[in-house]
Amino acid sequence: LAVTLLDTRSATARIRYPAGDDPLVETADWVQTGDGVRFVLHLAAPPFGYRVLGAPGALVVRVRRPPAVSRRRPLRGLTIAVDPGHPPAGAVGPTGLPESEATLAVARRLARLLEARGARVVLTRSDAGAVGLDERPARALAADAHALVSLHADALPPGVDLARGRGTSTHFFHPHSAALARAVQRGMLARMGLEDRGVSRSSLALVRTPWMPAVLCEGATLVDPVHEAALRTPAFQEAYARGVADGLEAFFRGLAAPGAARP
């Protein structure tokens, strides 16, 4: 994990390690570059998340360790932030279904599924009211969530062939979110059975928060009349929600040590 301070010169003469061994942070070093100083933490495993914070007279880098996970009930005791995408803005289907209405219906179902599997759920919005784009990840951060999942129904840019552009896709930004994105994509494809539009690294506000694995799901294509009709039905909303829940469960189960006998 590297932090680069631009237009800076280092006066560092010593790096002090705390007493005792740290199973995550192995060593740290720094190098003066042409445009600043690069500090590097060498970790025994990829970080679960991180934050860079300002403090009086200091810059603090916090590295998040993975939570303790039960292989039998991997979501138990975890906090999951569920974001029903939009409003403001959002796509509208051919017969007038707003994306924000569809995503809220799916989010409510997902919340019930996750709670039944032992998780605590924080909804970034619980009604039709608008929530700002920056406020949504801020609410996940305030809850110290272990994962953030943003639910959407895709629109397509002008000129894109609907037959080739529709389907299911998942987006992430930070490397430690990639495994969650792949797991959620597999879960949605298995439950909904739509075309696979793959996993993408995308610079989207909802997935740029680095403190937790964060993904944005485009479960279906709202501008497709067939997908819009499906999104109106409880059965398809449930399939969307179950696909995401299955992906979250698979991701966290993968964090449990093989053969671990946690209850």
Q: What would you say this structure looks like, in words?
A:
The protein is globular and about 65 Å long. It has helices at 99-116, 135-142, 162-165, 178-192, 225-231, 234-253; strands spanning 2-6, 25-33, 36-43, 49-55, 58-64, 79-84, 120-123, 147-154, 168-172, 196-201, 214-221. The longest helix has 20 residues, at 234-253. The protein has 6 helices and 11 strands. Mean pLDDT is 93; it is low at 259-263. The strands form 3 sheets. Strands 7-6-8-11-9-10 form a 6-stranded mixed beta sheet, sandwiched between helices. The chain has a 3-stranded antiparallel beta sheet with strand order 1-3-2, with no helix packed on it. Helix 1 packs across helix 6 and helix 4 packs antiparallel against helix 6 (234-253). 37% of the residues are buried. 27% of the residues lie in helices and 28% in strands. With 263 residues, the protein is an alpha/beta fold.
What descriptors fit this protein?
263 residues; alpha/beta; three-stranded antiparallel β-sheet; 6 helices; 27% helix; 28% strand; globular; disordered C terminus
The helix/strand class is: alpha/beta
What percent of residues adopt helix (DSSP H or I)? 25-40%
Order of helices and strands: EEEEEEHEHEHEHEEHH
What percentage of the residues does DSSP assign to strands (E)?
25-35%
**Secondary structure tally: strands:** 11
Amino- and carboxy-terminal Cα gap: 32 Å
User: What would the average pLDDT be, to the nearest integer?
Assistant: 93
Uncertain runs are 259-263
General shape: globular
Biggest sheet character:
6 strands, mixed
Q: Number of DSSP helices?
A: 6
